[in-house]
Amino acid sequence: MRILGVAASAAALALGVAGNALACNISEFSAEATCAGGKGVIVVTDKDGSGTPAVVSVFLENNGADARKVGTQEVKGSAQGTTVTFAEDWQPNAVYRIHVQARGTKVDNDISPNLTTPSTACAPATPSAPATPSKPATPTPSASASSATPSTPGSATPAPSESQSSTAPAGTVSNAPSPAAGDSNLAETGANSNTGLIAGIAAALVVVGGGAVFFGLRRRGASNGR
């Protein structure tokens, strides 16, 4: 009986130690202030291997008192660690209190010590440069388009084709009246002859001859009167 009692006591002690090892503990929680996308965040990690659900609350401290509640989230831990993230634009050297309350356990404590943020604020994220739109390709005019372009003033005038020549084709009847037969001789005796000059000389000779006859007759009459 004594041996059975010792064995039972050892088994109970082993079960108690194992139970305590699997129970949720405040030491399995940790917090960190980091930056994400140029903004501040607070990350709480739960490494409770038992997976006991816990409620995590974050408070901003001011002179040892809660100044503002940042938020509350529920987390179910794991041996590898489960994290919950609180968006908080924290200031350098700010102090935050993180409280953990696990369901069905005696865990209802703050993570010790309180979280103090880094002395340097998060740098704003650098915006990416917009892509430069590509210019559309300029179409190259084809040879046919360039040949169809009208010529500018002062350019050489294209020579008329044979069909546009002003020379009348052979055999074309003219609308002007043809000269009558014999007109060519009359024209030559008119404007092109010396008829006027000859007529003038003849008239002068007639006058001279008449004058000579007149004076001759007068002298003869005077001679007869003596």
From TrEMBL:
<protein>
    <submittedName>
        <fullName>Alpha-ketoglutarate decarboxylase</fullName>
    </submittedName>
</protein>
<feature type="compositionally biased region" description="Polar residues">
    <location>
        <begin position="162"/>
        <end position="177"/>
    </location>
</feature>
<feature type="compositionally biased region" description="Low complexity">
    <location>
        <begin position="116"/>
        <end position="161"/>
    </location>
</feature>
<feature type="region of interest" description="Disordered">
    <location>
        <begin position="108"/>
        <end position="187"/>
    </location>
</feature>
<keyword id="KW-0732">Signal</keyword>
<keyword id="KW-0812">Transmembrane</keyword>
<keyword id="KW-1133">Transmembrane helix</keyword>
<feature type="transmembrane region" description="Helical">
    <location>
        <begin position="197"/>
        <end position="217"/>
    </location>
</feature>
<feature type="signal peptide">
    <location>
        <begin position="1"/>
        <end position="23"/>
    </location>
</feature>
<keyword id="KW-0472">Membrane</keyword>
